[in-house]
Amino acid sequence: MRIRDNWNRPICSVPGAKMDVVERVTHNYNWTFEHTGKVVKDVINMGSYNYLGFAENTGACADAAVEVTHAYGAGVGSTRCEMGNLDVHEELELLIARFLGVESSMAFGMGFATNSMNIPALTGKGCLILSDELNHASLVLGARLSGSTIRVFKHNNMQSLEKLLRDAIVHGQPRTHRPWKKILIVVEGIYSMEGSIVRLPEIVALKKRYKAYLYLDEAHSIGALGPQGRGVVNYFGLDPKDVDIMMGTFTKSFGAAGGYIGGRKELIDYLRCHSHSAVYATSMSPPVAQQIITSMKIIMGEDGTSLGVFLSVFFKLRTSDLDQLGDTVQQV
Questions:
Q1: Would you tell me the crossing angle of helices 87-100 and 286-300 to the nearest 10 degrees?
Q2: Residue 132 and residue 152 in contact, taking contact as beta carbons nearer than 8 Å
Q3: For the chain, N or C: smaller number of CB within 10 Å?
Q4: Residue of 323, 299, 305, 329 whose CA lies nearest to 226
Q5: Which Gene3D superfamilies match (predicted)?
């Protein structure tokens, strides 16, 4: 029970490299806590996924978000299909598509729902989902909600994945042995609990060999990996067209909220009409959308500064096991 005091600490500052937390005490061995009214300052932050330090209350991102809040307000009050489609949303989606190198993209207000509500729109009964055993809960939930048959392969194990692919082709659907309507491989770019990077070149080769589709969740890799910070596809130097559905979130590298799906225009147009997250969910908050636009332009080097280059160099050093000494804008 003693370890409970390490989690769910109330924070009262931005999630930077250092942050302030509310002091609390316990009188029953951490079953419950009481706030003392005091604040513990400059606590080293080792748990946030504010990877590039964009979730700050000062600087270009914060200033742009404030300006957009004055222009549009904090909320939208409608869905994208009704009265909640703003020019800032369309600007964001055009930028995402250009950043990813794909034909089109769509932004969503919640990262978890980007997976859990879009996978059911892509697969269903008579389809097969091959899922890495360490996939995030949002991917697992989306697969279950789809009604597809789900088979799990060992983490990053290409032999396990290929065996499932081969068996799926040879045997087809249970009982009827009809060919599967669709086979979808679902993986992550970086697995959050293990820190391992997906063996993407090998998965792409298997996907092409067995004519399957590939769904790639780049929640933790987009913005942080690759020479241009464009994720694991960029990291391996692959063609974005090799990945059928590119998914990611804005909660990590971009210091915001929400998620995206990128791919062919036909795919995105289909999701706009069939995804529950697109049709029924309230539109992304305008200042959040602007936060993403500003931070993404910084990563792309389109903000007129060298900050994006600095952040890229920092992560190159970290992934090369070289220590970065001195103050940085990141907390990892």
A1: 30
A2: yes
A3: N
A4: 299
A5: Type I PLP-dependent aspartate aminotransferase-like (Major domain)
Residue with tokens 């998620």: 259
* Cβ neighbours for 278, distance < 8 A, ≥ 6 positions apart: 80, 81, 106, 108, 271, 272
DSSP-assigned beta bridge partners for residue 130: 151, 185
pLDDT digits (tens, 9 = 90+) for 224-259: 999 999 999 999 999 999 999 999 999 999 999 999
The CA distance from 144 to 111, in Å, is 17
Can you tell me the distance from the alpha carbon of 39 to that of 282, in angstroms, rounded to the nearest whole number? 35
Task: Using the structure block, give the residue that is written with the tokens 């995402």.
Answer: 96
Please state the separation of Cα 300 from the chain's center in Å.
18
- In degrees rounded to 5, what are phi and psi of residue 161? -65, -45
d(CA 228, CA 6): 35
Name, in order, each residue with C-beta under 8 angstroms of 28's C-beta and a sequence gap of 6 or more. Answer: none
DSSP H helices in 75-199 = 87-100, 111-116, 119-122, 137-146, 158-171
Q: How far is CA 20 from CA 41, 46, 255, in A?
A: 4, 13, 18
Instruction: Provide the pLDDT for residue 332.
Output: 47
Partners of 11 in the beta sheet? Answer: 21
Please give the radius of gyration of the chain, using alpha carbons only, rounded to the nearest integer. 21
Could you give the residue ranges of the DSSP H alpha helices within 44-105? 60-72, 87-100
User: 213 pairs with which residues across the strands?
Assistant: 184
- Which DSSP state fits 5? G
User: pLDDT tens, 300-327?
Assistant: 998 766 565 556 555 555 555 555 544 5
Cβ atoms of 69 and 287 closer than 8 Å: yes
